[in-house]
Amino acid sequence: MLQAKAAIHVPNFPRAPKLPSLPTTNTLFQELNNGFTHSSSILPVLQDNNDSSNNVNCNCSSKSKATMHQLYAILEAVSDRVEMHHNVGEQRNNWNTLLLNSINMITLTATVMCGMAAASGAAAGAPVLALKLSSALLFSAATGMVVIMNKIQPSQLAEEQRNATRLFKQLEAEIETIIALGNPSKEDVKRSMKKVLALDKAYPLPLLGAMLEKFPQKFEPAVWWPSSKRRTIRFNEKKGEINNNGWDKGLEMEMREVVEVMKKKDVEDYERLGNLVLKINKTLAIAGPLLTGIAAVGSCFVRQGSWASVVPLVAGALATAVNAFEHGGQVGMVAEMYRSTAGFFRQTQDWIQETIEEEIEEREDGELFEMKLALKLGRSLSQLRDLAAKSAYSRIEGTPIDEFASKIF
What InterPro entries does the entry give (predicted)? Predict the structure, then answer.
């Protein structure tokens, strides 16, 4: 039989050249130590360069982290203020309801007692005297409570806190947007701090010493934004009117026309209504305590068959109606609503004018700015442009424009 044999032949590879022997660890350390003893300037230079680059990176990241931490601290404070103003607003709204119900019940009870004393005969003696004293005390208590209530205007206080809650929520969303976009700057921190302090000043929480004047001599719009002074920069024609951050002369003229419409229509209308409501509120605030005071004095002279008995009855009934209209109708809240709305238009005007006065490169994108303004006024972009065109046409023709800038308020 034949046997099969297999063999594997491995090729002969060329032999690798012999490497020089490396020094031992101790020898290498001694050579490096001796070598750098006389040229010690080489390693420190390299080491300093590396350390400086690391320090720069650490400083940049630390600055960014510090700015982010500051924004988060402001955000926490703003969130806390939102909760505080919301809770205080609910509390003061309860004040308005409870005080109004209590005063009306006291006034009506005193009026009924006064009527019972007038209907009783002279022979009643002590019961009639008790009814007179009780009605006089109740009317006096109602007078004091009405004076305090008219002074603080709980419905107006509640509206102030509602507005503050809404504005702090806006600021909270704005800071969250800055953080989400990343790379915040020191200017963002300063601007956020100024807005928080301006809102604290515009809508104070305490009553004693810091409460806003409820009956000013003149109606003034609310101001809750920080004032900023910027130098006026005209539109530079050398830079061209196209691709200038979305701005051109046409858009600037459109913004100016919108500002004129707000001044002539919206602001004037709300200031007129605000002054009217302020006068009505002042009249009611004086009439309420005056009527209860008259009723308190008249209740002491109640006698059967005397016309003097009619005075406290009529005064008490009228005081109840006046208090119900003033605080039940929340006239103070309406005055604050007009004040905040007038402030909204004032803020929008300042926002437009300050943006126009900035340099082209520093402005917000023109298309985005126009869209934001249209949303603020409850209009579409085409409606906003039509409003500006109507304003320009009415000024040329010398006729008043018959349209308001805002379709929301």
Answer: Chloroplast_duf (IPR027949)
**Helix, strand, coil percentages for the chain (3-state, nearest 5):** 75, 0, 25
Rg (CA), the chain: 39
Residues 22, 27, 32, 33: what is their CA dihedral angle, to the nearest 10 degrees?
180
Q: Give the number of other CB atoms < 10 A from CB of residue 179.
A: 14
**Collapsed DSSP state (helix, strand, coil) of residue 18:** coil
Handedness of CA 215, 221, 225, 227 (dihedral sign): negative
The answer to whether 399 touches 264, Cβ cutoff 8 Å, is no
* HSE value, Cβ hemisphere, 13 Å, CA-based, for 293: 8
Distance CA 365, CA 360 (A): 9
> What amino acid occupies position 195?
K
Find the mean pLDDT for residues 336-348. Answer: 93
Q: Which residues pair with 247 in a beta bridge?
A: 244
Q: How confident is the model at residue 229 (pLDDT cuts 50, 70, 90)?
A: low
Structure-block tokens of residue 166? 């809404």
State both tokens at 36: 């750098």
- Answer whether 295's CB lies under 8 Å from 106's CB: no
Q: Which of 371, 397, 396 is nearest to 385 (CA)?
A: 371
| Residue 212 region by backbone torsions, left for phi larger than 0, else alpha for psi between -120 and 50, else beta | beta
C-beta of residue 274 within 8 angstroms of C-beta of residue 339? yes
Return the domain boundaries, the chain: 60-204+234-397
Residue with tokens 């931490």, as numbered in its chain: 69
The four Cα atoms 70, 75, 80, 85 give a dihedral, to 10 degrees, of: 120
